[in-house]
Hints:
By secondary structure, this protein is α/β, with parallel strands linked by helices. It has one domain (43-188, 266-431): Alkaline Phosphatase, subunit A (3-Layer(aba) Sandwich), CATH 3.40.720. It contains 12 helices and 14 strands. The protein has an 8-stranded mixed beta sheet, sandwiched between helices.
Amino acid sequence: MALHRTCDGVARRDFLKVGVLGASALTLSNYLRLSHAGEVKKEAKATSAIFINLGGGPSHMDTFDLKPNAPAEFRGEFNPIQTNVSGIEISEHLPKLAQQMDKFAILRGVTHTLAAHELGSQYVNTGNRPIPSIEFPGYGAVVTKELGGLEDLPQFVAVPNSPQKAGYLGVRYAALSTGKTPTAGQPFGVRGVTLGNGLTVADVEKRRTLLEDLDTTFKAVEKDSQLLDGLDRFGDQAYSMITSSRSREAFDVSKESPSYAAPFGVTGFGQSCLLASRLVESGVRFVTINYGGWDTHNDNWVRLKTKQLPPFDEGLAALLGGLAQKGLLASTCVYVTGEFGRTPKINTQRNGRDHYARAMFMLMAGGGVKPGQVLGASDDKAQGPAGDGFKPDHVAASFYHNLGIDCHKEYQTNIGRPVMIVRDGEIIPELFA
């Protein structure tokens, strides 16, 4: 999957690089040790999650919120098609997702005011409107802290990277980034998990001894350092992950049966969805997929129908169908969003659509989500919600609720400031069965 830059020059890559196996295995070990286990909430409907970030801001009017009766200067070139749920229509360039409509819900009329890529991305990846004084943790960091997981698997994996940060929770909750996307039919190696370049388990055992010696050096500063907090406690997990066949095989998409893998196609996004399915089946708690390229100021319809929508349609439809086929959709929450929508009125000079935060779509599936429905609506020209609409905060609260996490729970920042997981959001009750 290519690295995409948006119009403001922001690259969609992690700010923290973790999970790389160096000469002494320090980076992976630090990542694992700086990870923390919580307790699975008994009321949880879902026990794992896949978050798909559509970096750049996809056009709501050309995907999941078409307005075929709007004036020509608004409606665009695409036509709606009927889905497999009576009365629900989406874009003609999403035919495979149209046949999976009974597995997900569409949220229309989602609205906010941050029409800049970085700020909008921070908002939808944390559920909290950004403020200068606090760096809020992304969903993956919170879910990792609250739900924990198996010792020999990473619990927050980003494919190939993610804008979600650990924020005030500290780097122990940062993502393990793959740095690349899988290639169809080939083993997928992730530096820091898979044993490549002739490295053997025996080598890792020797390096573990070296690592223990190095850890002793840090004990004097560990007490007062958030970065080194819990260093000794998680050393065994680093060793377990590197030497665990389960961990290595979890990332190897070539081990999927051809019949299961075929619907995902061969694109980077499709293979990322296949990997996400395999990871949650193996026990990974949270997976993000970053699929950029949606900043369609120019040639919006050509770019969507030839480049962006076909892989998205194929990959997401296969993910929803594949999770259902394996009995995993009931325990896996799938959340799809960009940072904003795009202008309903067409920019005729560039045949495109520009940034627009007043109306956008989000998708939710799995766990306790009631599928096959549309919640909310935009007005007749998709310029804003018809009614109050939904804030990203409300969708965030609902996402956490689906995982059995109390969104109003308070954390302490590293300076002792109490902060709720979601400061302003409330659950959307209609979203759940």
